[in-house]
Design a protein that fits this description.
The protein is mostly helical. It has 9 helices and no strands. The protein is globular, with a radius of gyration of 19 Å.
Length: 201
């Protein structure tokens, strides 16, 4: 198993944010504004996947396919039938929650990669035997082939986000140096522009 700094513990908390009362207190116009702002934030947030790591968008798409085809309880039954333990299935759910929470497979605070806390071969059996794989075999197999190795890889350069040999990112192109990043940031600052939700090539 991976070093504990690269996994999310099974007992990590997941909280539900109940905003019904606050939403109820809004005027009809404010409700529409809040709704459309939340939708824009959700769709705009998908850009973060493209900025994080090469595999992040594929992991997200794969997880989305899995959970659209089977709810977590159905997927649990399938996973247990494929030989996962309850702890391993919980580790898979925690990993999926981490990907959704961080919009990628690197922690949004600390920029450290996290990997599933279960054997790759077992996760592969769950994915390739899932209802999603039955419904969309080529797509699910293609997503797994694209992201499976990178999802689990803790090669030194892939352990943290960073530039060049110091880490991995798709926020900047592979040939971008720290000097290039500083030059671009200085230019953006001079124009009063934010670098968020951009990519630098």
């Amino acid at each position: 198993m991976a070093d504990t700094q690269y996994i999310l513990p099974n007992d990590i908390g997941v909280s539900s944010l109940d905003c019904r009362e606050a939403f109820r207190l809004l005027s009809p116009t404010e409700r529409l504004y809040a709704y459309h702002l939340s939708r824009a934030a959700w769709y705009g947030g998908l850009a973060v996947l493209l900025q994080t790591s090469p595999e992040a968008p594929y992991i997200y798409a794969l997880l989305s396919r899995l959970f659209r085809a089977q709810d977590p309880d159905q997927l649990r039954q399938h996973a247990l039938a494929e030989g996962l333990t309850e702890e391993e299935y919980q580790a898979f759910l925690v990993y999926a929650a981490g990907v959704y929470s961080n919009m990628g497979n690197y922690k949004s605070f600390g920029d450290t990669k996290f990997v599933p806390n279960l054997p790759k071969e077992k996760l592969e059996r769950v994915i390739l035997g899932s209802e999603a794989a039955q419904q969309h075999p080529e797509e699910v197999r293609g997503l797994w082939q694209t992201c499976g190795e990178l999802m689990f890889s803790l090669e030194p350069r892939l352990r943290h986000l960073g530039l060049g040999k110091e880490g991995i990112t798709t926020y900047f192109s592979g040939n971008c140096t720290m000097e290039d990043a500083k030059l671009a940031q200085d230019f953006l600052d001079s124009q009063n522009l934010s670098a968020y939700n951009t990519r630098l090539f």
